């Protein structure tokens, strides 16, 4: 397999956003599937009938499999192999999109550096969140600030901040009324009062995502709600990677429910790195249930059962709090533009945006607050 990447810098390309991964084989298969005709597929692709027919034969020989079923006077249909190939490519595309977007952001940074000397740059490592992606776009459009954004797990983002890999880290925690050993052990060692400054951004809702037919089947067995559904025999879980905030949330909730993770199909073996990838697996039928954002569930047409409300925070070292890039971001967060952006994401809303908060007061799972009060 050979992979070659190219990008455009002409005027039209610069006005467009987004990144795409394409291959001529899949363009051909999609055209054939949509039209049911080699002639119509050729017209859609802007190619000759002879060229399309030659392409089909070329790919069949290269892959050693038939791609279409065709008889004169009948509709051309894709073989089962072709359908599986399209499904597999779609899964790969979903998983690759965050990496392609990161590459696009890198190229965009180079162009902006050359074009505007007033533009500030902020290196950000953050737990995956649709709102943060919109914040990046808003910062570029309205704040003369380029966020060099890299999505990673909450724990790794904080580790990168302390090691100087990034200047700002994004992580999320549920609103808890009690201390959590899971969050304390994973995130607590990376956050120190006096060293770190917490900036409030927004809140979001996480819950169970399932296909609607899965939810209906569970309802017929009187098991429509969350944890009973997870315990249903044969229910396939898709989990997030270790160290991600959503993986920590699941571990915390499993601990509260008294459920051993080892007994869940897919806890260790079926793992993805973004909410979008989790939703894609459920929508595609390779998993039945997983935790994710309400906004992502709606985008994929999935059933959503809310479980917890979370706070999404940005954190920097104390000496960076009043640096020009961080100041611009704090100002941007406090504007109505940011709250308006979040209105388009179900389950998300601005929460004291741009305010600098006390670590001890903002994170109720941290026992430092109670320890200091006891000493006083």
Spans where pLDDT lies below 50 across 5 or more residues? 368-376
User: What is the name of the CATH class of the largest domain?
Assistant: Alpha Beta
The separation of the N and C termini measures 66 Å
Instruction: List the total number of helices.
Output: 17
Order of helices and strands: HHHHEEHEHEHEHEHHEHEHEHEHHEEHH
Number of strands: 12
In angstroms, what is the radius of gyration? 24 Å
Whole-number mean pLDDT: 87
Which sheet architecture does the biggest sheet show? 8 strands, mixed
Structural class: alpha/beta
The CATH topology of the largest domain is D-Maltodextrin-Binding Protein, domain 2
What is the second-level CATH architecture of the largest domain? Answer: 3-Layer(aba) Sandwich
Count of discrete domains: 2
Percent helix, as a range, is 40-55%
Q: Strand share of the residues?
A: 15-25%
Shape: globular
Keywords:
376 residues, alpha/beta, Arc Repressor Mutant, subunit A, D-Maltodextrin-Binding Protein, domain 2, two-stranded antiparallel sheet, 12 strands, globular
Describe the structure.
With 376 residues, this protein is an alpha/beta fold. The chain has 2 domains: 20-90, Winged helix-like DNA-binding domain superfamily/Winged helix DNA-binding domain (Arc Repressor Mutant, subunit A); 118-376, D-Maltodextrin-Binding Protein, domain 2 (3-Layer(aba) Sandwich), CATH 3.40.190.290. It is built from 17 helices and 12 strands. It has helices spanning 11-15, 24-35, 38-45, 49-63, 80-115, 130-142, 154-162, 181-187, 212-220, 226-230, 245-257, 275-284, 294-299, 324-334, 336-343, 359-362, 368-375, and strands at residues 68-69, 77-78, 120-126, 145-151, 168-174, 196-210, 239-240, 271-272, 289-293, 303-317, 349-350, 356-357. Strands 3, 4, 5, 6, 9, 10, 11 and 12 form an 8-stranded mixed beta sheet that branches. A two-stranded antiparallel ribbon has the order 1-2. α5 (80-115) runs antiparallel to α12 (275-284). It is globular and about 75 Å long. The chain starts with 10 loop residues before the first helix and ends with a helix.
